[in-house]
Amino acid sequence: MAFTVRDFDDLIRLLDKHPNWLEALRQRLLTKELLQSPKTLQRLSTRVGKVEKGLDSLREAIQTLTQSVTALAEAQRRTEERVGRLEEAVTALAEAQRRHYEEFVAHRAETDRRFAELAEAQRRHYEEFVAHRAETDRRFAELAEAQRRTEERVARLEEAVTALAEAQRRTEAQIQELIRHQRQMQSTLDRFAQVIGPAVEERMIPALKAWVEGSGGTLTGPVVSMALDGIGVVDGVVRVRWPEGQEGWVLISVRAKVWPRGIREFVEGILQNPEARAALRARGVEDPVWPVVFGLTADERALETAKQEKVGLLLSHQGIIVPPVPWSIEQGSSLPE
Hints:
single chain; alpha+beta; seven-stranded mixed beta sheet; two-stranded antiparallel sheet
């Protein structure tokens, strides 16, 4: 094995720690002639001293070199670490550059695609505009034609309106003539009613007396008509006393001929009308009351209607056809039988 500087340095440190080894080393290194020769020894001692000094200098240089080498190695390690980090940064930068380039390429492709789409959309919009303009021109032409036809129709309508106005004038004249005839007819009917009404009512009184007295009852007052403040008229009102001692009022509606409608008008207009019932009570009419419809003749359907409405039906020469049931003008309904 070769003797290196590091081995020599270790030898020097051992000799410093063990001075007695130095003498043994001298005896090994020096011959007897050298030991016995003072001059030689002096020279040798001088040379050894120089060598020792050289060794000390060499040892210091080696130590300094070792420290430098150690510092250089540490610097080399840090440099390698920095180089490693730099390489990583360069690699990352290259990767980022690659991604940026790929993104740029993709963005450029997307931009080209969108420009192509915009160009296509612009082309379609232009075609649509051309088609819309053509359609607009066509529709304007149709509107112009429609306007022309409308003006013709308006002209015809104006003529029709003029004709209708003339017809309306003639119709109004005819209506006025009808109104005049109606007034004449109403006047005739009023005169007829003035004649027939009292005549029928005159026949009603003996028929009423015959029915009440035939039932064992008695009229305790005169038979009179009662106007209910514009609400309606009760053609006959009279107070009666029945055989059992019960007293009340008989309310009579007089008709020349009794129809179902006349019976319902009497029920709804007088017996069930709150205002009419209030007016009757104000005149002193109290519960119970017996409603009767009197007539010279009657339609066959009037009998069933009188039964359904629980109203009496009295005819001039036939007497009581449907007996009445008592009513309450307080409640506006028939009383339980």
